[in-house]
Design brief:
- The chain has a single domain, classed as Barwin-like endoglucanases (Beta Barrel), CATH 2.40.40.
- The protein contains 2 helices and 8 strands.
- The protein has an 8-stranded mixed sheet.
- A hairpin with a 5-residue loop joins β4 and β5.
- The longest helix has 7 residues.
- The model has no long low-confidence stretch (mean pLDDT about 95).
Length: about 120
């Protein structure tokens, strides 16, 4: 049996941009991607703490050390610049493997979106 478990999480970052006219996705600072073990095009869930919205999209690599968190396309309607979001990725694992799995959790500075 396989189950879906939390693979990684970026906990509480501030949205720096919302670009409605861009083809959908979320742009994430490459430093945050590396720290959270995320790769470009990986599916993520974005949870907006300010308004309770939840959405799924895929990751686009943002400029390293920029602090960028940008919701693009239709997802831009679910956030406002300055909103605080949590970004979560999941993985399918064998049940026994999942029992031993430890997700990668990142807690950046909420003001700058930089790794502390």
């Amino acid at each position: 049996m396989f189950i879906e478990v939390c693979k990684s999480k970026i906990h509480k970052v501030s949205v720096t941009e919302a670009n409605l006219q861009y083809v959908g996705s979320i742009t994430i600072d490459e430093d945050l991607m590396d720290a959270a073990n995320l790769i470009e095009n990986e599916k993520v869930q974005v949870v907006n703490i300010n308004n309770g919205e939840r959405l799924e999209t895929y990751v686009i690599k943002g400029e390293r050390n920029s602090g960028v968190i940008c919701l693009n396309g239709p997802a831009a309607r679910k956030v406002a610049v300055g909103d605080v979001v949590i970004i979560i990725s999941y993985a399918m694992m064998d049940f026994e493997e999942a029992k031993k799995h430890n997700p990668t959790l990142v807690f950046p500075d909420i003001e700058t979106n930089k790794i502390v």
